[in-house]
Amino acid sequence: MKRLLLTTILIIITLTSCSKEPPKEFRGFDPEIFVMSLGDMGWEAICKIKVEGFIVTEKDDEYSVDLELNIDLITPQKDTLKSTGVTSFNESSREEFHSYLNLETSFSIDTSSGAGNYEAVYHIKDNFSKKEFALSKSFEVN
To answer: Whole domain around residue 40: which residue ranges?
Structure first.
């Protein structure tokens, strides 16, 4: 009887410890850039990225996240335009957040840089954990 009880307890402990999902690394994936012509005024760029592994705080049955997305633009002439697109995602909800969030920002590209190959450098920061990462995506303006 003692063996059966001990075996059952060990199985429960093993299953419980194996079922916990390890925390995800704070990272971004699937960056997307859409560019629309504004005629003589240049172009409008919309940058999107999915982010996971961020900290969610819980207080009084309310869940909160605090993320920042900042885009640096590298022009065809290799000039870096800092913080061309900036957005904050500081949200609270009574429902838990999904395992990833979609972040989005937009900015204008004037005609002085012209058409050509650009690069957007995504800088994402989790203000709760103070973790940051960066990744880049090339795109063409014509």
So the answer is: 22-141
